[in-house]
Amino acid sequence: MENDPQPIHVRRPFSPIRTAIHYGLAWTLVVFVPLVAYDQLDTVEAFTDSVMTATAIAATIALHLGLYLVGRVLNLPGTRGTVHGVPIMLTTFVIAALVLFAFRIEYSRIFLLYATIAATLFAIRMHWTNPNRIGQTFHVVPFGKARRMLEIPNLPHQTMSAPAIPDGERISIVADFRADLPDEWERLLATASLSGVPVYHYKQLIESLTGQVKIEHLSENSFGSLIPNQSYTPIKRMIDVIGSIIAIILASPIMLALMLLIWLEDRQSPFYVQTRTGHGGRPFRMYKFRSMTSRPQVQGEAAREDAITQDGDKRITRIGRIIRKIRLDELPQLFNVLKGEMSLIGPRPEANQLAEWYEEHLAFYSYRNIVKPGLTGWAQVNQGHVATLEDIDIKLQYDFYYIKYFSFWLDVLIVMRTIHTIVTGFGSK
User: Fold this and answer.
1) Is 0.85 surpassed by the pTM of this model?
2) Where are the domains positioned within the chain?
């Protein structure tokens, strides 16, 4: 007997009252309960002692900041509290401990350790917080393009046969709001909304569930513009500059060792420099550690074939195979980021020969250059290495999703998934 498909989860709309209750419950269990426990032990006046007060304040700030950040990240597709919530919550408490240490503020290590563990357990099970998840059955209105919902694997769905609100507790209705619906179906959507039944536009729901934007036409963002969220752009640049400087300093010993190892293998230059298309379609010289044998330049179709890395490619060196698997060959691009030619996160820049080929066959391919190319991106953590036009078409849908939902929270999620990618070697060639 086949296993039943796993239900797709959709998060309930934001509720300030429910969120306040949940945040208060978390604070009670993480901060207030240990204070009461210490007080009952008669070893310290927990509610008046300066050490315990400082610890409680630090734990409170770390907890609420962590809950807020985790809640924002878990609103993105394909996220789980265990994988994506835990690192964020741990990071907020580590920062709290570092601040206390830096300012020489006395604090209770046992208290803070307990608060860290308890808060992390909440991050693992974020079902009860703001983005409360409930299993859904999607009832699809059989008009327009809403039927595309049926293409999503393991999606619990039913095609509606009559304009009546379906029976059941965990139901939602999906429709194509831009389709010319009969009057009785229009009335159904209005009645369902008034009755508290969630009614979704198929396009936004598919994007939320798949993390892709279907390439039919250029898709506007939430501000109604083809240009990505401009309010985030200067913040992103500041993060790029600070992040690249810190990363270059920390990675310098690794980069020096790799330079030596690559040179010792075949006495050739450890670097590979290639002109690629960047922000606004402007070319730039991208740096990499050389992971293949040096080869003469070729032209035409041969250049396109040369730019594609195949499974078991014999051009890859022994050192190259290792550094490509864990993405160390990309480290020199930190200097491209510092120069402003790239970002830490964005669509990966393709070799010009491949980009020209893709643009011939894929509509709107050049639109991905509306943002800076990145060291890692949404497509890389979801799909990995690609070579065929069919794969590139899917990759482009991931790139368009990143452009449409361009935000700090999506970048945070990509960073966490990139760490997983590096550890597992996902998509490496």
Assistant:
1) no
2) 9-128, 136-210, 233-424
